[in-house]
């Protein structure tokens, strides 16, 4: 908490506010749907304020959601299959790129974050982890 009796340090205060905000909430800034490498399944990737890139297998997520509905568990969370610490700070952009439509292994996900870094991930690696 900010103490008005102490010397004001804007950097420390900004860090404290950011830490408190990220501890209590997470905002999704970017989403992209993409196909898995060599697979028919669809995937969803989200970039958030925590700096994480979260990946869901849509077939699996929908199956788990339907099973929860059938059992009457309305509050069941469908969690991502893969979470990558992509950036120091928020992820503001997630883009799917397929340079060669005939080569499923060439598919990439690109993230851009508050830290000024752009990362590339092979879809095949993310899908195998999911």
Summarize the structure.
This protein is 27% helix and 33% strand.
Name some characteristics of this structure.
130 residues, three-stranded antiparallel β-sheet, single chain, alpha+beta, 7 strands, 3 helices, four-stranded antiparallel β-sheet
How many structural domains does the protein architecture include? 1
Query: What best-fitting shape do the alpha-carbon axes yield?
Result: flat
Helix content: 25-40%
The strands making up the biggest β-sheet line up spatially as 1-2-3-4
Relative strand content: 25-35%
Order of helices and strands: HEEEHEEEEH
Number of helices: 3
Model regions low in confidence, pLDDT < 50 over at least 5 residues: none
The assembly state of the depicted protein chains is single chain
By secondary-structure content and strand pairing, the structural class works out as alpha+beta
Count all strands and give the number. 7
The main pleated sheet reads as: 4 strands, antiparallel
Please, what is the average pLDDT? Answer: 82
Q: What is the terminal separation in angstroms?
A: 39 Å
In angstroms, what is the radius of gyration? 18 Å
GO biological process, one term: mRNA export from nucleus
Keywords: WD repeat
InterPro entries: THOC6, WD40/YVTN_repeat-like_dom_sf, WD40_repeat_dom_sf
């Amino acid at each position: 908490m900010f103490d008005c009796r102490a010397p004001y340090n804007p950097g420390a205060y900004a860090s404290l506010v950011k830490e408190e905000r990220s501890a209590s909430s997470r905002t999704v800034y970017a989403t992209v749907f993409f196909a898995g490498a060599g697979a028919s399944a669809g995937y969803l990737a989200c970039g958030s304020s925590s700096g994480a890139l979260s990946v869901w297998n849509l077939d699996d997520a929908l199956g788990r959601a339907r099973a929860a509905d059938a059992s009457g568990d309305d509050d069941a969370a469908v969690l991502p299959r893969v979470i990558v610490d992509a950036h120091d700070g928020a992820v503001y952009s997630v883009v799917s790129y397929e340079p060669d439509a005939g080569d499923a292994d060439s598919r990439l996900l690109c993230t851009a974050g508050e830290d000024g870094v752009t990362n590339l991930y092979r879809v095949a690696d993310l899908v195998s982890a999911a």
